[in-house]
Specification:
The protein contains 2 helices and 10 strands. Strand 6 and strand 7 form a beta hairpin.
Length: 139
């Protein structure tokens, strides 16, 4: 699954190579979570971890600014508008995984993994775009 909407060519990175500002921001925003695994995505850093029994990831700018979080949810927790859209536009293909994405400005999006693509929706279930696992976007 592509963990975040900006995901493209993520590279694993040792925690010792993550900038202090990023690690401090992670610690401030996510207390009491399992140790994070880190990836570098372009200039940004992504932490993957577990919180309250959910797989999560958080994307940070190099200065430590939190850009967005993603929390895995059960497919049946998606709004019905999303599952209806997928049934109509991806006939016969099941949603493999689902997530809620919260951007820094509070905007909420949903992600449904369908046929090696992440299909993104706004908070009301309106289709936004497809993101191929390689990071290519298709509007």
């Amino acid at each position: 699954m592509v963990l975040l909407t900006s995901c493209a060519n993520a590279q694993k990175v040792d925690a010792s190579k993550v900038p202090d500002a990023v690690k401090k921001s992670f610690a401030k925003n996510f207390t009491g979570v399992s140790p994070a695994k880190w990836d570098k995505e372009g200039k940004d850093y992504e932490a993957s971890f577990k919180k309250d029994g959910h797989d999560m990831s958080a994307l940070f700018m190099i200065d430590g600014m939190l850009m967005e979080t993603e929390t895995d949810i059960a497919v049946n927790e998606l709004p019905s508008a999303i599952t209806d859209y997928v049934k109509t536009h991806y006939k016969g293909i099941a949603i493999k995984e689902a997530a809620i994405i919260i951007k820094a400005n509070g905007e909420k999006n949903y992600e449904a993994e369908v046929d090696e693509m992440d299909v993104l929706f706004d908070a009301s279930g309106k289709f936004l775009k497809e993101v191929k696992e390689e990071g290519e976007e298709k509007d």
